[in-house]
Give the backbone structure.
Amino acid sequence: MLYGAVVNTPAFWKYFEGEAHPKLAHRQQSLRYVFEHLDRKNRPVLIVETGCVREAGNWAGDGQSTVLFDQFISHRPGSLAYSVDIDHDATALCKALVSARTLVHTGDSVPFLRELARHPPQGFAHADLLYLDSYDVSFDSPHPSALHHLKELAAAANLLGPETLVVVDDAPSEGIFIQNGNEIGFLAEPKVSGKGKYVADYARSIGLTPVFRSYQVGWIGF
């Protein structure tokens, strides 16, 4: 369930509703939740993202999250965003699309997150958003990507506060079902797969329920 309307950053919402939201396809509602969560803080926020924007204007394909995060913090004085990607070409493109307030790093996201967690930026005890989207996923074989994102969560542990929103992209649910004509019956509750498979397994083991679950999955309380 989404929070509902928030208007602490009206200039951003005008941009989001007019330019971004109509193009976001299956990420529309989850990214709306993300920005409502951030907007409710009504103070400077810290956003940490793995996997930066790799193609300008590819809204439906990858969500343009780095661009959106940069837009939000540009309307929230004192806020910062960090984005890390191992691909030099991607980070070069990303730097050309965002402002200087979004700090784009080239390298492996796991040691980057561990170092950032050890030395967070001054004025921020925790990240307000940890957005995990760094390792391309094969839905037929999600293990390498899912394991990498679990490593990212572990590396960023000291950045996570009780109200930090953790989001994993490319994490739809999958299940085993029986089809009888037009009727479908699941043999068990569908489980998060893709990039979020192991993060979801860990969350479930410590009693966390997703705050949203669609093509992206989000939790608060790690």
Observations:
- The first strand starts at residue 46 and ends at 50.
- The chain has a mean pLDDT of 92.
- The chain has one domain: 10-220.
- The chain has eight helices and eleven strands.
